[in-house]
């Protein structure tokens, strides 16, 4: 849509605090939303003894920018603000309000730290001190642990699973202990080789799902800290731990050889008590603990599901009123230093959302509960049963056209739960140590004299416990459904690590999928800690030669590498830096980037890549019928080689490392030159390789061609798109580049066309076929032809959701111009068929909003810019007669757009069409 704007009127409304009295104040409102390191709020069991501090300035008329800050840090609340014994930053004249590094006394395991901050505004008025925030460190070193790993030898039972794999029966472990006095404070430090649930004196210690989570266990196991002060009693106490295989000891991946020798699950736990009289007590896991495998959870595996027998429930087994005389003594094993025990560095998985059943379908004796949303987690089952009967619970993401369950795409994952009732009545059960990807639940084995009702089944949606902190909405129903599908794809695949899919026999940290979807996830949710944590796992999984494995944690162990997949180690840290402005993410990952680029170099000849593998995975209409598509691997590998060298160069520059900057920039230039000579004619057409949309996209997105070939390459890309009847022909690697390249080359109308296409292949195609998540394939299912015949056909695979980044940045128009949104670009592209779009994003500085609408000939843009930032607002047409104010200055006014420099506040720009 071409906006013909005769004149603009400009209104700006500065939010809040407009009264005169506010102006007269000598002190200004305090800073809020204080966080440490990657956005933790008052964490317990914190991992970082060199934290950074961030805060937000209040939205107030007298607060536009920060001119100085003062941080005080103390070992006790009473010492603040005047007697800070750990660190007093003094007044620092700077506008830095995020990621301020702690420079005080060294911090130790268990230490509780209190801090607050004040700031001065642009007029050098001082704020009052912020509220006091705190954090408490976990056990930072292996030497802090006095406990031993304990468990029963479940391997000896020799139970074989569905793939002839060893199954470890879940264990129940307990220990009674006596305290002589009253407890003042109690901390439980705990982890497992496996997954656990812990209770003390019959009370659940937390609602965490499958802690401690999934890391490269041979390198590092995360530990969790719980404040258990309120459940400890004076006198006799009991601690009980349920322990199952989880990711540690289940089969994962498709290689049988890996499953035969999984180590038996074990738990490690250390309860540290400070008594009211000041004495300390410590209770540790050791060989005095007792255990049994004769409890109600009979089996539990990630892929195959859980089996529960209520007849074996052990009433009160985590209380003092239970005799464990028939239980076995556990085996104990000292901790070793080759596996680092470190506090978990992001949030645990929790049950985050409850989905009610929408419809019950009864067919041929089965009863199917439809949640009308593909989700990940477990069902909460409240089903009437008869004593001795076994409820069978099956899952499916979709029904086949004939109404039957489609489970072929789960492949070998049995994904089935069983519950045997111990009495007549309504059960109340939720599986504990498994999870499923599903929309439909099929039940059999319940009390058939009772008519099923919707309240029998509730979907408990489980994912890492992050806040969602961005929204996008528009006037177009299908675009809104796409946004919803993107968000559900994220919820479904952020189960402690970023996974490819949540339902079949994979659920692994596929690096390529993470590389393409990561940037979009950063808009939709507060996932900095999630990614920073997984990147540590990537560093730990990097091979000696710099290669990055296909999946992280690496459970395939075959040393195989793929271009475009391993590049996650350069692309994601850099994207995170752009979104957060935190140089720490670059510092932490710089060595990994360099080693990966060295691996690229080693895998090339004359700088042309010989690296293999997945190529433009799942490109539609491949000429050779292959999942790898038609774009040549050497084109892909060389392009990513150049791109990773380029990112490494830019990183070096930000880190102030000029030598490395020069080295990697030169390398990027040399690889680009080789790429251009080897694969592109002077007119910008491809040579020595198949011509595909993705080859052109790689060349243009990664800036690999000299100026003179650029226009030709662009025209060839447009030709390829036109030949495909204005449809995409891109797979995992090409798709995220489409919007970037078409946008940068001024082809926004065409990008709108591709995005709003309804026919295959397009984003709306899957929506038209009923998708409520992003699918693995552009044609995983169609109403006309049914399911894609291949069994690699996940209906919850976030990769193509990568388009979300462009929806925020260009349809709604919010992008960082300077890292961390210190300078924001508001540049929406209002185009048909949309009449409105809006997004909100909680940046490190606070909320940014951009919302536009065209209504009865009036174009309106509402913008909110948070304190301590500025924005460049780019309006799609010329602004006439705008007068500069303190808050808005015209930077340029050309025929087809106007650029304004805008200060913090809320503004409305209006124009009559
Ligand atoms: C996964 C991916 C992954 C791919 C490698 C698949 O099995 O589900 O999404 O990136 O293998 O090509």
Overview of the structural elements:
- With 913 residues, this protein is of the alpha+beta class.
- The chain has five domains: 130 residues, Immunoglobulin-like, CATH 2.60.40; 195 residues, Galactose-binding domain-like (Jelly Rolls), CATH 2.60.120; 114 residues, Galactose-binding domain-like (Jelly Rolls, Sandwich); 343 residues, Glycosyltransferase (Alpha/alpha barrel); 97 residues, Maltose phosphorylase, domain 3.
- Helices cover 21% and strands 31% of the residues.
- It contains 15 helices and 55 strands.
- The strands form 15 sheets. Strands 24, 25, 29, 30, 31, 33, 36, 38 and 39 form a nine-stranded mixed beta sheet that branches. It has a six-stranded antiparallel beta sheet with strand order 1-55-51-50-49-40.
- A hairpin with a 4-residue loop joins β47 and β48.
- α7 packs antiparallel against α8, α8 runs antiparallel to α9 and α10 runs antiparallel to α11.
- The radius of gyration is 29 Å and the shape is globular.
- The relative contact order is 0.10.
- It binds beta-D-glucopyranose.
- The site of beta-D-glucopyranose has 9 residues, from α4.
Give a concise summary.
With 913 residues, the protein is α+β, with helices and mostly antiparallel strands.
Runs in which pLDDT lies below 50 for 5 or more consecutive residues are 1-24
CATH fold call of the largest domain: Glycosyltransferase
Number of helices: 15
Shape: globular
CATH level 1 name of the largest domain: Mainly Alpha
Task: Determine the structural class based on helices, strands and strand pairing.
Answer: alpha+beta
User: Major sheet: size, sense and barrel closure?
Assistant: 9 strands, mixed
Bound molecule types: beta-D-glucopyranose
DSSP E strands, number: 55
Proportion of residues in helical segments? 10-25%
How many whole angstroms does the radius of gyration measure?
Answer: 29 Å
By CATH, the architecture of the largest domain is named Alpha/alpha barrel
Strand content: 25-35%
N- and C-termini, Cα separation: 12 Å
Number of domains: 5
């Amino acid at each position: 849509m071409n906006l013909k704007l005769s004149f603009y009127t400009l209104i700006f409304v500065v939010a809040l605090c407009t009264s005169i009295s506010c102006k007269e104040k000598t002190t200004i409102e305090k800073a809020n939303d204080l966080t440490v390191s990657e956005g933790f709020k008052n964490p317990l069991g914190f991992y970082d003894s060199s934290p950074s501090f961030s805060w937000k300035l209040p939205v107030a008329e007298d607060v536009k920018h920060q001119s100085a800050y003062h941080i005080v840090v103390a070992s006790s609340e009473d010492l603040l603000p005047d007697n800070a014994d750990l660190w007093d930053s003094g007044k620092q004249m700077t506008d830095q309000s995020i990621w301020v590094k702690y420079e005080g006394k060294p911090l130790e395991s268990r230490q509780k730290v209190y801090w607050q901050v004040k700031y001065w505004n642009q007029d050098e008025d001082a704020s009052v001190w912020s509220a006091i925030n705190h954090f408490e460190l976990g056990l930072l070193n292996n030497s802090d642990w006095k406990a031993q790993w304990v468990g029963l030898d479940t391997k000896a039972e020799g139970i074989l699973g569905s793939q002839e794999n060893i199954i470890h029966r879940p264990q129940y472990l307990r220990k009674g202990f006596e305290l002589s006095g009253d407890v003042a404070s109690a901390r439980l430090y705990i982890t497992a080789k496996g997954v656990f649930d812990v209770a003390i004196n019959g009370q659940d210690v937390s609602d965490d799902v499958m802690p401690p989570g999934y890391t490269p266990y041979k390198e590092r196991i995360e530990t969790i800290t719980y404040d258990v002060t309120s459940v400890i009693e004076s006198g006799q106490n009991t601690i009980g731990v349920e322990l199952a295989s989880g990711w540690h000891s289940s089969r994962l991946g498709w290689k049988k050889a890996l499953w035969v020798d999984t180590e038996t699950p074990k738990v490690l736990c250390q309860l540290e008590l400070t008594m009211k009289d000041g004495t300390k007590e410590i209770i540790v896991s050791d060989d005095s603990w007792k255990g049994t495998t004769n409890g109600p959870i009979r089996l539990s595996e990630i892929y195959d599901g859980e089996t529960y027998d209520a007849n074996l429930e052990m009433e009160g087994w985590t209380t003092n009123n239970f005799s464990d005389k028939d239980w076995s003594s556990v085996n104990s094993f000292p901790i070793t230093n080759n596996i680092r025990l470190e506090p978990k560095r992001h949030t645990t998985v929790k049950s985050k959302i409850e989905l009610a059943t929408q419809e019950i379908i009864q067919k041929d004796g089965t009863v199917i509960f439809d949640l009308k949303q593909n989700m990940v987690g477990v069902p909460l089952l409240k089903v009437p049963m008869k004593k001795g009967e076994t409820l069978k619970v099956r899952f499916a993401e979709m029904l086949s056209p004939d109404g039957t369950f489609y489970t072929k795409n789960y492949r070998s994952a049995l994904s089935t739960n069983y519950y045997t009732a111990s009495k007549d009545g309504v059960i109340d059960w939720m599986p504990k140590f498994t999870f499923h990807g599903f929309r439909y639940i099929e039940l059999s084995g319940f009390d058939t004299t009772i008519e099923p009702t919707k309240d029998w089944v509730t979907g408990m949606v489980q994912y890492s416990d992050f806040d969602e902190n961005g929204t996008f909405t528009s006037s177009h129903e299908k675009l809104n459904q796409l946004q919803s599908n993107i968000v559900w794809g994220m919820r479904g695949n952020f189960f402690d690590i970023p996974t490819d899919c949540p339902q079949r026999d994979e659920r692994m940290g596929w690096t390529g999928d993470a590389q393409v979807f990561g940037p979009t996830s950063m808009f939709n949710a507060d996932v900095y800690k999630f990614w920073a944590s997984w990147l540590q796992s990537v560093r730990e999984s990097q091979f000696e030669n710099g290669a990055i494995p296909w999946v992280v944690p690496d459970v395939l162990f075959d040393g195989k590498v793929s271009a475009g997949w391993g590049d996650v180690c350069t692309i994601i840290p850099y994207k995170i830096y752009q979104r957060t402005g935190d140089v720490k993410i670059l510092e932490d990952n710089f060595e990994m980037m360099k080693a990966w680029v060295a691996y690229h170099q080693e895998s090339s000849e004359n700088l042309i890549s010989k690296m293999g593998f997945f190529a433009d995975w799942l490109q539609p209409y491949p000429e050779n019928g292959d999942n790898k598509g038609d774009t040549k691997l050497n084109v892909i590998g060389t392009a990513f080689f150049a791109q990773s060298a380029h990112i490494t160069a830019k990183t070096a520059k930000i880190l102030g490392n000029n030598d490395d900057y020069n080295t990697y920039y030169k390398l990027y230039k040399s690889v680009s030159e080789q790429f251009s000579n080897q694969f592109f004619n002077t007119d910008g057409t491809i040579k020595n390789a198949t011509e595909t949309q993705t080859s052109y996209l790689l060349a243009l997105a990664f800036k690999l061609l000299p100026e003179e070939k650029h226009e030709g390459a662009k025209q060839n890309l447009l030709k390829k798109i036109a030949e495909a009847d204005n449809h995409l022909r891109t797979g995992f690697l090409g798709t995220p580049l489409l919007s970037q390249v078409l946008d940068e080359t001024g082809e926004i109308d065409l990008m709108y066309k591709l995005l709003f296409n309804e026919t295959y292949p397009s984003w709306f195609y899957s929506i038209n076929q009923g998708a409520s998540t992003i699918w693995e394939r552009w044609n995983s299912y169609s109403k006309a032809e049914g399911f894609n015949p291949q069994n690699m056909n996940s209906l919850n695979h976030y990769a193509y959701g990568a388009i979300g980044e462009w929806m925020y940045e260009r349809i709604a128009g919010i992008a960082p111009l300077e890292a961390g949104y210190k300078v924001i670009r508001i540049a929406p592209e209002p185009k048909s068929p949309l009449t409105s779009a809006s997004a909100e994003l909680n940046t490190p500085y606070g909320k940014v909003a951009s919302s536009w609408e065209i209504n009865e000939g009036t174009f309106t843009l509402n913008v909110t810019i948070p304190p301590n930032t500025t924005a460049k607002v780019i309006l799609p047409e010329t602004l006439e007669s705008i007068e500069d104010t303190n808050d808005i200055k015209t930077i340029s006014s050309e025929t087809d757009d106007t650029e304004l420099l805008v200060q913090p506040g809320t503004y409305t720009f209006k124009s009559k069409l």
